[in-house]
């Protein structure tokens, strides 16, 4: 069910699954690649994905990419997530890269997109201590000096992959208007005045505080137009929400398959626990939810590819909401079905839960997604 893949996409999925099985197929391999589950991104393995040409799956051919669409990128995210490939830097990289592709100068695109294809990591810095869901409330300030350079001061927080990024797509305030006063900047991560401090989380080293003190950027560091950052952010919502949805779809599938494998083998009262109706019905419900999620994510991706200049706020928010909530539910149910073993670090289920539970928060909380969906109905 829910395939509708082209022959090329079918081959791509098969190659991804083979890679994941070969490189990350055992718990020992995954522990070694992730420092026992504390590092979601492995640069060496990520480099091998770059060598295979997969990191540029949806980036233009003129910058070294494969020229595919959002549907292809979603397949990559779904399968690497399912295969537990520690390529955590890809999500923010491809989201940021699409912004550079759409709004960057030719020089920015040639620099940033080619590095993304070659294994470089990009981060996006929007959130601040006082500006999370309300991005328009951010205070990080960029002032233009008489010589044309930009001087930036402020703090960003919860910035995914900043610690392993080559560059950061920074959103800063350049004017007083809440929305029309925002601007995007290209910020090399090693710029003087940038300090990155990791935030310890359940998922390991994922997010960071980014402090900007007297940062100086050249006039041509602006990505797009000065004061147009809010519109540019809104134009990228299809990408962000779809990519996060595909990522969590893969995790939901993996948590489900791990739970099914366990209840088939675990015996109590003389028979496999999966044969009891209580668990069999749970499995049936979860399988149905995952299939609904797969159909939704893939259909929205195809629609976005068919009309690349159209925003799909309702559909993209639906995909993100459905996939993240489903992944969280599947991981929680999987832990419950596995009992104490689901809680033990010997098995992957507790990692699945740690990865899934935050997905309903980042990239726009489930509450924000519901609000967006409701507003599209004039409510």
Structural notes for this entry:
This protein is α+β, with helices and mostly antiparallel strands and 379 residues long. It has three domains: 7-119, Acyl-CoA dehydrogenase/oxidase, N-terminal domain (Butyryl-Coa Dehydrogenase, subunit A, domain 1, Orthogonal Bundle); 123-227, Butyryl-CoA Dehydrogenase, subunit A, domain 2 (Beta Barrel); 236-375, Butyryl-CoA Dehydrogenase, subunit A, domain 3. Helix content is 50%, strand content 15%. It is built from 13 helices and ten strands. It has helices at 7-24, 27-34, 43-51, 70-82, 89-103, 106-117, 229-235, 237-265, 277-306, 313-338, 340-343, 349-357, 366-375, and strands spanning 122-125, 141-144, 150-156, 167-173, 182-188, 194-201, 204-217, 222-223, 267-268, 271-272. The strands form three sheets. Strands 1-4-5-8 form a four-stranded mixed beta sheet, covered by helices on one side. The longest helix has 30 residues, at 277-306. The chain is globular. The chain starts with 6 loop residues before the first helix and ends with a helix. The mean pLDDT is 95.
Secondary structure: elements and pairs:
Layout: H1 7-24, H2 27-34, H3 43-51, H4 70-82, H5 89-103, H6 106-117, E1 122-125, E2 141-144, E3 150-156, E4 167-173, E5 182-188, E6 194-201, E7 204-217, E8 222-223, H7 229-235, H8 237-265, E9 267-268, E10 271-272, H9 277-306, H10 313-338, H11 340-343, H12 349-357, H13 366-375
Parallel strand pairs: 1-4
Antiparallel strand pairs: 2-3, 3-7, 4-5, 5-8, 6-7, 9-10
